[in-house]
Amino acid sequence: MQLQLLPTSHTFFTRFSLSPFIHRNPNMTSGSNSLMWFRKGLRIHDNPALEYAAKNSNHVYPVFVIDPHYMKPDPNSFSPGSNLAGLNRIRFLLESLVDLDSGLKKLGSRLLVLYGEPSDVVIRCLKEWDIKRLCFEYDTEPYYQALDTKVKNYALENGIEVFSPVTHTLFNPVEIIEKNGGKPPLSYQSFLKLAGEPHWSISSPPSTIPPIGDLGNLEVSEVPTVEQLGYQDFQEEYPDPPLFKGGESEALRRLKESTNNKEWVATFEKPKGDPSAFIKPATTMLSPYLKFGCLSTRYFYQCIKEVQQEVKNHTSPPVSLIGQLLWRDFFYTVGFGTPNFDRMRGNTICKQIPWNDDDELLAAWRDARTGFPWIDAIMVQLRKWGWIHHLARHSVACFLTRGDLFVHWEKGRDVFERILIDSDWAINNGNWLWLSCSSFFYQYNRIYSPISFGKKYDPTGAYIRHFLPVLKDMPKEYIYEPWKAPLSVQTKAKCIIGKDYPKPVICHDDAIKECKRKLAAAYELNKKTNGVVSDEDMKKLRRKLVEDQGQGNDSRRLKQKLI
């Protein structure tokens, strides 16, 4: 690999494609101390940063920092966990760290766990351990960009070499954006044309890692348990056994299990699949391992390519498994290159829409109390498992936003971001923008019905009965619309609607029409203003929508009188 020197006076992008960009200290002697800073990329296989740290070093310090921003218990959150992460994801992360520690021990090292604000902790480590080489995987998320800038600036000022390869994605977002004239491509097909074929090779895991040196005065610990982090035993909240076990070992086991079924891998076709399948979900179930980097995206890509070489009749992007990895890269690239990608205001690719600010409807959706069994069952699965099928995600996201409740997509995004084990900043925001018809997809007349969509896959309601046992005895004729069941049927099923299970929070047929009316008006305003919608424009639109709604109600009442 060729090395290229970077300027040493200002903030820069450290990147990796055909060759990694590094800041290199020409005076650094062979045998200096290296620090391997783990954040994502929690693996030994295909880890160029770890491989580089292990080369020509006397000592390597593998570090993970428990970040209170992410891990501190929040007793006021709507479910166990921190303010930003549910307990399922925290548990998965801790299991992944335990597995990483085990893998490092087999190579003669171990994981050093420290606590605190990550950039401050890492800078203390650089000072205390006389580190001359800092290695970590590049991260495109804004939070990590800010952390990394602070740490890299310190390293540059103190002659510390920085090696930060882009290995969490197949392509380098910086290079894709440069190829597109400084702007991210806003369609999947344009992204594919710019990206072409990846040109990396899988990094070989080190056969051994140099030992850890003197730890000095820094307080270092083993990987903590959830109890040691301040959480109560979560078995009571989550009675089902965890669906996912964190760690590289489990990721590679699941990958092998998936790719052994070569016909399934070759013919995989999204969006096909059954969102109601819960005994054996109809996907690879590898997304949490890709999110935390327990599984290398590049290695996964290579394994799929090998299967496709053996099975000639295979699906192609955008619906194939390779296509799903490319969708992931697409959202990473757009998210990285779009200011305020995670919000509506100030986001130039996002339609400005006067969403409802209704915390009661949001809470009913979040807490599985909408009165629509298909939606509520999905939200129960989400809370218990920390995972739901992609079509289930589509269903509940559409219902919350443009389909029925017209609640702001940012509110739903926050719930997914906290509860999903595989929550990924770029993908989560990208999907909510898409499913709310705020960006990428604009056919707002096409919705996921909270009644007929689930029924198409599961006409008897087995999925609903599993996750909403209060409805387990409801006849299949009423399982998707229990409010239509006669009182005698409800009584026999031991489920009185409005008492044992909620009445619907809205009338679906009326809600669809109202959402479409509001979206049509919002789209017209965005077109008229060329997407530059002021606060005053939005206020006027809200007033007009309220007035039009009132006139519509008056007309309907008059029509009923005439009839």
Automatic annotation (TrEMBL):
Q: Which Gene3D superfamilies match?
A: 1.25.40.80, DNA Cyclobutane Dipyrimidine Photolyase, subunit A, domain 3, HUPs
Q: Where is the Photolyase/cryptochrome alpha/beta domain?
A: 32-170
Q: Which GO terms describe its molecular function?
A: deoxyribodipyrimidine photo-lyase activity; DNA (6-4) photolyase activity; DNA binding; FAD binding
GO BP: circadian regulation of gene expression; entrainment of circadian clock by photoperiod; nucleobase-containing compound metabolic process
EC number(s): the record gives: 4.1.99.13
> Per its Swiss-Prot or TrEMBL entry, what cofactor is needed?
FAD
The question of whether Flavoprotein is a record keyword is answered with yes
Keyword field contains Chloroplast? no
**Which residues carry the site feature described as Electron transfer via tryptophanyl radical?**
W355, W409, W432
Copy out the cofactor comment: Binds 1 FAD per subunit.
**GO (cellular component) term, any one:** nucleus
> One Pfam annotation, family name?
FAD_binding_7
Q: Which reaction does it catalyse?
A: (6-4) photoproduct (in DNA) = 2 pyrimidine residues (in DNA)
Q: What is the official name of this protein in its record?
A: (6-4)DNA photolyase
Q: Which organism is it from?
A: Lactuca sativa (Garden lettuce)
